Amino acid sequence: KHDVPVSLAMLQLWSSFGTAHHNCPNGIHRGACLLDSSWQSVALIGLLAVSHFNQRDSRFVPAFNSSLVRACDKRLSLKGPVDVGGDAIETLQQIADLKKDVAGLPDIFIGPLTSDASLGVVALAGLPLATIISYWPSSPEASLSSRYPRFMRTIPSDNDLALAVCSFWEHEMQFEAAAVINSNDAKGERYKQALQRYCLEDVYMDLRSFAFEIGSPEGIEEAVKAFGQTGINIAL
Fold it and tell me: Closest Cα to residue 192, out of 138, 148, 152?
């Protein structure tokens, strides 16, 4: 029997506060634009995963019916999912609402989280009652186990990715120059800076950068045109 309950709060993203209402072909949810079905499917997959784990159903995840999982006495109970709306303040408010009921506080928070919201939410992992597992935030700061001892993620940090990319470019491909075309938000700038640090300082490549504003087709076009004028044929 799987009798030991573990409560989860899923921080999902299926709407966006950053989009004007007249540009919302999928409708409005709690004052935010509904994202397309690809985002909504992620939330649904999370619900299905909880159900299949509890049933030890291995149709999509063979490990759910492994001897190790069958021997596990845990049963997941879902508090949520919580739509964070792609907004840092909204994300923190949603979590604050969950924390008002201390007795009913989830054992585990599961992402995803936007880049801007990630560190604010990850800070909750420094509290003794909050464990966070996420597949979204890539900030190197979140790797500080002394500050966030109860935070775990399933993706590498920006620093680890940048080091791997720069090493691959130099040692495997023997590239001498490359470019990064990045969004000018916190995540894009953070990743660009990590690439500059490793590609320029560690492997001594010629690395150019071209930023664009998210949601601006003109900005993307200008960044790509500027890249095209460099003569470099490698871009990330």
Answer: 138
pLDDT 10s digits, 123-169? 665 666 678 888 877 888 777 778 778 888 888 889 999 999 999 99
**C-alpha gyration radius of the chain:** 21
* CA 157/CA 137 separation, integer angstroms: 8
- Domain range for 173: 158-228
User: Residue 217: CB partners within 8 Å, gap ≥ 6?
Assistant: none
More confident residue, 73 or 25: 73
User: Which tens digits make up the pLDDT trace of 159-215?
Assistant: 999 999 999 999 999 999 999 999 998 888 989 999 999 998 888 899 999 999 987
The answer to the question of residue 55 being in a domain is yes
At 132 the three-state DSSP class reads strand
What whole-number distance in Å separates Cα of residue 72 and Cα of residue 91?
A: 32
Residues 190, 136, single domain; the answer is no
Residue with tokens 């964070």: 84
Q: Are 200 and 207 in contact (CB under 8 A)?
A: yes
Residue 10 contacts residue 28 (beta carbons within 8 Å): no
